[in-house]
Amino acid sequence: MNLKYVVQRIGLFFVVVWGAATLNFFLPRLAPGDPVRSRLFAMMTQGGFQQSGVEEMVKAYQAKFGLDQPLWKQYLNYLWDTVHFDFGYSLSFYPNRALDLIMRALPWTIGLLTVTTILSFAIGTILGALIAWPKSPKILEWFLAPMLTLAAIPYYLLALILVYVFAFSLKWFPLSGGYQAGTLPQWSWAFAWDVIKHSILPALSIILAAIGSWAIGIRAMMVTTSGEDYMTFAEARGLKDKTIFSRYALRNAMLPQVTALALSLGHVVSGALIVEVVFTYPGVGSLLYNAIQTADYFIIYGVVFMVILTIALATLIVDLMYPLLDPRIRV
User: Fold this and answer.
1) Is 260 domain-assigned?
2) pTM for the predicted model, two decimal places
3) Residue 314 within any structural domain of the chain
4) What distance in Å separates the CA atoms of residue 164 and residue 323, rounded to the nearest whole number?
């Protein structure tokens, strides 16, 4: 592989991470209001009493979180802390640190979205490729209309439908949560089965919505590759249909799918926000939703930076893998 190409890709990776991290710092601060003052007044309102010396408390908390410093100094401190994955204390859950809260929610999101992304990719890609292959059984063409329908329905609407049918009406699955209320997380088969039962409906809503998109994407690329000269040449050589399908048609149609898969896996750490909110699933999506509601800068910084880093890293890996997947890219 060309060393100059590798260096350029790695350099671009760091530039993209720095630029996106800079936007991550400034965009939340464009929102009106003071998050510290708003949080303190909300706590007083919920407590049902008025607190004297609110301004002194606001100044003390701003100094604690570094919000009383000039913006340029906050930015430099932010960059330094971000390099060390130190996102500071949570405004809403003080004295918990933002990274600790993210790390508690991350396994739930990674477990849910990694499985659903890979399953939907595998099922949708294979099904879409077979639908587009002229020598496939004709019965597979009946799957095209359902695939188009599923691709058009947002996954959170599917989530609401699944909750109503299978959890509320039939009561086959739990309504919400990641495990039974009142249960302490532990390493046991009973707890693992409880987690699986709670994750089936969220996973099913994501898989059903994503299968259609994967199938439509690969079907379009398969139709395109079917008219290429190398396909005609392969048929003229008398190769088996299985070989032509896997090594000539599907392999050349897979490049856009691989790119989309890498970007989807990069988004895994952000969580399926609306699905997690619908099911009250204890993942990063729910944590980010609550942080946005309470203007918790430091949790937002942490979650968004991890998304930036994973997407940029996934794109870098795909860029380095492309010459191996398709030798023509080396030229």
Assistant:
1) yes
2) 0.73
3) no
4) 47
| Residue among 283, 288, 292 nearest 303 (CA) | 288
- Tell me the two tokens of residue 31: 């929102």
Dihedral (CA of 118, 121, 127, 132) sign: negative
pLDDT value for 166: 84
Separation between Cα atoms, residue 250 and residue 243, nearest integer Å: 10
One domain, residues 158 and 223: yes
Distance separating alpha carbons of residues 281 and 179, to the nearest angstrom: 9
On whether both 69 and 119 belong to a single domain, the answer is no
Residue labelled with tokens 């395109």: 224
Task: Provide the residue range defining the domain that includes 216.
Answer: 102-288
Question: Residue 141's closest CA among 126, 131, 128, 152?
Answer: 131
Residues 187, 66 share a domain: no
What Cα–Cα distance (Å) separates residue 156 from each residue in 144, 150, 276? 22, 12, 9
At 66 the three-state DSSP class reads coil
Token code pair at residue 158: 């599917």
Same domain, 111 and 35: no
**Does residue 256 share a domain with residue 205?**
yes
Q: What does the pLDDT read at residue 261?
A: 81
Q: What is residue 289's predicted lDDT score, i.e. its pLDDT?
A: 83
Give the Cβ contact number of residue 106 at 10 Å.
19
Structural domains in the chain (count): 2
State which of 31, 56, 83 marks the end of a domain. 83
Residues in the chain with pLDDT values less than 70: 1, 28, 31-58, 60-67, 182, 266-272, 325-331
Query: Is the residue at 92 inside a domain?
Result: no
